[in-house]
Specification:
- The chain has a domain at 12-145 and 270-320: Rossmann fold.
- The chain has 16 helices and 8 strands.
- Helix 7 (182-192) runs antiparallel to helix 8.
- Strands 3-4-2-5-1-6-7-8 form an 8-stranded mixed β-sheet, with helices on both faces.
- Helix 10 links the parallel strand 7 (229-237) and strand 8 (262-268).
- The longest helix has 22 residues, at 156-177.
- It is of the alpha/beta class.
- It starts with 11 loop residues before the first strand and ends with a helix.
């Protein structure tokens, strides 16, 4: 059983979400949690995919332990009672709801109580493995922390899906902020109903309309948007040219949603992930030297640097050039076949040229 932590300590709560299913959220959550534990941080991974829990498979665990389902349906079951040590002394797992029926759409009050219990656990990092799609429960879990990981594949449809995921999350945050206000709800519904994808609306327009509907509402909305710090993980990357999709999402999120998205990592397409899954193992336990595992370790080191500094990380904004820095940092994991690695200047010029073609 996990104990509670002092109120002033503050674990880093890191939701891991994305617009689609099958993009690697659970794989990243499990391996990232394990990597953080092996860096001597107390890490807890939580299966919040209510109605579709399967994180236990990646961790090689049987689905026979109480989890969030029992917390949501049992009056006397606390979050601390469903934390189970796995694989490493500093690594723990909270199962989902596979053993309990009808917990896929808990009330907002139940979700608040659950999240309060999670944040009170004694840990350095708490990673939430979210379900697919943009259901309200998924959005609420994603918004529980100003810092989150957004997982995306290097494909144009995936960029659109990730953009719409962010858009839905932003509107959910604003809907919660202005709940019960008929004027502001009408504004939000009107803008949300516009066509999907980039170019359909700009957050600046929404904020101006909210201010007109309710004086002071625009400033509150602006503050809610600015507190949010999504971190992008581009998964299953095959070539350096795939990096450009990350730049495209960063630009769309900035221009249309007013969101500053930091590029956090480029994780390679790697057979070790599928092979590990067939053995019910995290990839790190099958071959820690594989390209995916090396990239995952780089991401873990970056995140580990914020241990004990959750509030500071939530305020950190110095990542305007994160795409260029991460493209350069991860390029060595994607060597061009038969040629030498490009210089930093050659790489960035190539990516800029590719992005220009995407705009055509």
């Amino acid at each position: 059983m996990a104990t509670k932590r002092p109120k002033d300590a503050g674990a880093v709560v890191l939701p891991v979400g994305g617009g689609k299913g099958g993009i690697g959220k659970s794989v990243i959550t499990a391996n990232l949690g394990l990597a953080l534990a092996r860096l001597e941080h107390r890490a807890i991974v939580v299966d919040t995919d209510l109605g579709g829990s399967d994180l236990h498979n990646i961790l090689g665990q049987d689905n026979d332990r109480p989890g969030l389902g029992e917390v949501l349906t049992g009056k006397d079951v606390s979050v601390a009672e469903v934390v189970h040590p796995v694989l490493e002394p500093r690594f723990s797992f909270i199962p989902g709801d596979a053993l309990v029926v009808a917990t896929a759409n808990p009330s907002f009050q139940k979700k608040r109580k659950l999240l309060h219990g999670l944040k009170a656990l004694e840990a350095d990092f708490i990673l939430l493995d979210l379900g697919a799609g943009t259901a309200i429960t998924v959005m609420d879990f994603f918004l529980t922390s100003p810092v989150s990981l957004l997982v995306m594949l290097p494909e144009r449809p995936a960029v659109l899906s990730a953009f719409n995921f962010l858009k839905n999350a932003a509107f959910r945050a604003l809907s919660r902020l202005f709940s019960g206000n008929a004027k502001t709800e009408a504004v939000l519904n009107a803008y949300k109903a516009r066509s999907r994808g980039p170019g359909a609306m700009q957050m600046a327009q929404v904020i101006a309309a909210l201010e007109e509907a309710t004086p002071g509402g625009g400033a509150r909305a602006q503050k809610a948007v600015e507190r949010w710090r999504p971190k992008l993980v581009l998964n299953r990357v095959r070539l350096m040219d795939d990096f450009v999709y990350a730049s495209q999402l960063v630009r769309w999120a900035r221009d249309d949603l007013g969101l500053l998205v930091e590029v956090a990592a480029f994780l390679p397409e790697d057979d070790v992930v599928r092979e590990a899954a067939s053995h019910n193992l995290p990839a790190l336990d099958l071959d820690p030297r594989a390209p995916f595992c090396r990239a995952l370790a780089m991401l873990a080191l970056q995140i580990a640097s914020w241990s004990g500094r959750s509030k500071e990380w939530a305020l950190y904004r110095d990542f305007a050039d994160s795409f260029e820095r991460k493209a350069t940092e991860y390029a060595a994991l994607f060597p061009p076949p038969g040629t030498a690695l490009p210089t930093k200047e050659e790489l960035l010029k190539r990516l800029n040229d590719l992005e220009a073609k995407l705009k055509e």
